[in-house]
Amino acid sequence: MGILDLFKRKPEEIEALDLSWIQADMHSHLIPGIDDGSKSMEESLQLIRRLSDYGLKKLITTPHIMSEYYRNTPEIIGMGLEDLRKAVKNEGIPIEIDAAAEYYMDEIFLDKVKNGEKLLTFGDQYILVETGFINRPQMLLEIFFHLEMAGYKPVFAHPERYQYLHADKAFLQDLLDRNVILQINLLSLTGFYSKQVKDFAEQLLEKGNVQFFGTDCHNSRYLDMLEMLPKTKVYDRIREQKWNNTDL
């Protein structure tokens, strides 16, 4: 051994990612070609095989429905789901595949709710909803109200990423006081988006309104970073708690 070998650092070993403790992922973009997620069936199958290898038993994939960008419908998503299920079965990947949607909350979405249009849900009438990352929609609380009046249970997707919640602690507290269900991206806990988002995600966990975790998987880069989750300080703690994912 040369003297330089003494100063070489051994690569740090990272514990293999285990997601069996949530059993089901309820936020991802795995139907190919209909939003900003997977671009091909081949890519989808590669991602799904990796998710299965992490110990997940079920995937509820949630394509975007956004009036300005992704004009998906329950019919479009249903056809994509059918094709994806067939491909997963043919590949022999041992995982259940279902679909809902990630709805962008705007005036058009509010009209859909008020008009009683068919909306895609998962579990016990849960519906995944999101906003833009910078500015709070003025009708946000109104939309939550009408969803609840229609019998839905809105799940607020990745609130740790919304800058308006970082800046407006009073409004955040208002949401918490209203018992709005929160879903955190596991990637947020790795620092994938930013340290600010990571810290805010940890704060939300402490406040107790988080009921769901999601991968929000779009491509392989997401899963590469997700494999860093075992290095985080919260990994062991969140694995020991009960999350609503396990009831899906």
TrEMBL record:
InterPro entries per UniProt: Caps_polysacc_synth_CpsB/CapC (IPR016667), Pol/histidinol_Pase-like (IPR016195)
UniProt record similarity statement: Belongs to the metallo-dependent hydrolases superfamily. CpsB/CapC family.
Keyword Coiled coil: no
Organism classification: Bacteria, Pseudomonadati, Bacteroidota, Cytophagia, Cytophagales
Known EC number: 3.1.3.48
Bilayer-crossing regions: none
Superkingdom of the organism of origin: Bacteria
Record protein name field: protein-tyrosine-phosphatase
Keyword Hydrolase on entry: yes
Pfam family, one: CpsB_CapC
PANTHER family: TYROSINE-PROTEIN PHOSPHATASE YWQE (PTHR39181)
GO molecular function, one term: protein tyrosine phosphatase activity
Annotated catalysed reactions: O-phospho-L-tyrosyl-[protein] + H2O = L-tyrosyl-[protein] + phosphate
Gene3D superfamilies on file: Metal-dependent hydrolases
Native species: Algoriphagus faecimaris
Keywords: Hydrolase
